[in-house]
């Protein structure tokens, strides 16, 4: 009887863990293939809460029975042994037998009735579920009235305590939990860095807007209806693109796009017959929604419109896919400069089009990106003189942001100089943060300080050179 009760306890424990761990899709496939045991397992998984309650009831009954029957049975088995050893004190015999029986029953219950079946179910959930399915269905149907009453009483008690009853099906992982699981799996070598990056990109994908991935208006290569055919052909051949937007007069009046194949097949044809319709969407649209729209429209290019009705830029299907799989280079693409380059131990050169959110994540900053998307736009709004010139700088959060390169009146590269460690800092500078007070002196306007203490009087370029040399 003791062995039977321990075995029953282990059976219900194994069934419980197997139900939680098993893959529903795998069971559904086997059930559709005609497996009866898989059909029973599928019914368990589809009614998970009820069958988990049945497992708990079975475990409780087996444990209570083991304590009620097992301990006295083992103790009665040990008493004759003590008598054979010459023990005559009945109190001592009873106490010793009960103590030994308690230890034996506890060990059997934990090892055979709990730990071993749990490990087996976690290791092979599918096999265990298939074996346990039919008996569990029979037990559930037999004990259904008791399970229904006990569940109802438990839920009623929770409602009295103003706690909403929970379901095992509600225990889905949040995005942050999945990210943590993926990182832990990567640390343990179960998935590689590429797979981890893909998972992160997929989560970011749903929050990314078209404005963040678009080809800006200033970089759009367009064909025009008011210029000669020869000029448009030259633009198309030099641009090395597949699709070109067609404009009337300016980029705010895009009437469609031309595929380069159509243009090459019929170079003398009327443009109107070659122009294909282009979809126009707001620049704030999520790229996940835009991708669905482009799939339905069977197009690979879309025009983005700003709040004033003007053209903000273009988005291609390739731009959207690159947010998941990374940069896609073809045989005509020039090798692009890395988005982030380390120019020294404390100096970094980054692309001006890098999103502020990505800069914050990479460098630990807290730059405000409510009004600007890119680090180049953020710096552009804070420099004193326009248009931006190489060498102009802004101090923020203890670091210096310098205009490193410009292109068509925009900032194409930004250099970030991070503060030097205490041991490497220049004597005349106590801190690289803005408006740092001089030790031992009251807060006063910069012009009241001595030249050696007032780092504002030293040219920014000289400071940058010193820092770069120190970091090199």
UniProtKB/TrEMBL annotation:
Q: How does it sit in the membrane?
A: Multi-pass membrane protein
Q: Where in the cell is it found?
A: Cell membrane
Comp. bias (Basic and acidic residues): 421-430
Question: Any idea which GO molecular function terms this record carries?
Answer: flavin adenine dinucleotide binding
For this UniProt entry, which segments traverse the membrane? Answer: 50-71, 91-116, 128-150
| InterPro entries (UniProt xref) | CBS_dom, CBS_dom_sf, CNNM, FAD-bd_PCMH-like_sf, FAD-bd_PCMH_sub2, Ion_transp-like_CBS, Transptr-assoc_dom, UPF0053_domain
Q: Where is the CNNM transmembrane domain?
A: 1-195
Keyword entries, A-Z: CBS domain, Cell membrane, Membrane, Repeat, Transmembrane, Transmembrane helix
Superkingdom is Bacteria
The family assignment reads: Belongs to the UPF0053 family.
Q: Which PANTHER family match?
A: UPF0053 PROTEIN YRKA
User: What name does the UniProt record give this protein?
Assistant: HlyC/CorC family transporter
Originating species: Saccharibacillus brassicae
For this protein's source organism, the top of the classification is:
Bacteria, Bacillati, Bacillota, Bacilli, Bacillales
């Amino acid at each position: 009887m003791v062995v039977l009760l321990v075995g029953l306890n282990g059976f219900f424990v194994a069934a419980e863990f197997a139900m939680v761990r098993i893959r529903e899709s795998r069971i559904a496939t086997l059930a559709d293939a005609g497996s009866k045991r898989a059909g029973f397992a599928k019914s368990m998984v589809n009614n998970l809460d009820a069958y988990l309650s049945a497992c708990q009831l079975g475990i409780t009954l087996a444990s209570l029975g083991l304590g009620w029957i097992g301990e006295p049975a083992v103790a009665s088995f040990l008493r004759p042994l003590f008598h054979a050893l010459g023990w005559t004190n009945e109190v001592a015999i009873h106490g010793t037998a009960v103590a030994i029986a308690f230890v034996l029953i506890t060990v059997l219950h934990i090892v055979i009735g709990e730990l071993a079946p749990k490990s087996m179910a976690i290791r092979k959930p599918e096999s265990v579920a298939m074996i346990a399915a039919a008996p569990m269905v029979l037990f559930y149907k037999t004990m259904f009235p008791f399970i229904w009453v006990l569940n109802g009483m438990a839920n009623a008690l929770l409602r009295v305590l103003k706690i909403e009853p929970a379901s095992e099906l509600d225990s889905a992982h949040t995005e942050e939990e999945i990210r943590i699981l993926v990182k832990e799996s990567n640390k343990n070598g179960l998935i590689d860095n590429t797979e981890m990056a893909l998972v992160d990109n997929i989560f970011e994908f749903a929050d990314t807007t078209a404005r963040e991935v678009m080809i800006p208006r200033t970089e759009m290569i367009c064909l025009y209806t008011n210029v000669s055919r020869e000029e448009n052909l030259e633009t198309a051949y030099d641009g090395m693109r597949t699709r070109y937007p067609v404009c009337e007069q300016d980029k705010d009046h895009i009437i469609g796009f031309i595929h380069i194949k159509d243009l090459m097949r019929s170079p003398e044809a009327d443009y109107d017959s070659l122009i294909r319709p282009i979809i126009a969407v707001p620049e704030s649209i999520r790229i996940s929604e835009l991708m669905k729209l482009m799939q339905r429209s069977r197009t690979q290019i879309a025009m983005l419109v700003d709040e004033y009705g003007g053209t903000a830029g273009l988005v291609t299907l390739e731009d959207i896919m690159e947010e998941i799989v990374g940069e896609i280079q073809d045989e005509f693409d020039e090798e692009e400069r890395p988005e982030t380059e380390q120019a020294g131990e404390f100096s970094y050169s980054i692309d001006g089009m890098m999103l502020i959110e990505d800069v914050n994540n990479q460098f630990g900053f807290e730059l405000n990106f409510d009004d600007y998307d890119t680090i180049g736009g953020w710096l552009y709004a804070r420099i004193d003189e326009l248009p931006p010139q190489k060498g102009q700088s802004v101090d923020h959060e203890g670091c210096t942001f310098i205009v490193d390169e410009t292109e068509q009146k925009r900032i194409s590269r930004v250099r970030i100089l991070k503060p030097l460690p205490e041991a490497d800092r220049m004597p005349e500078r106590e801190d690289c943060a803005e408006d740092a007070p001089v030790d031992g002196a009251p807060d006063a306007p910069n012009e009241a300080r001595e030249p050696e203490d007032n780092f504002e009087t030293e040219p920014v370029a000289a400071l940058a050179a010193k820092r770069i040399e120190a970091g090199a």
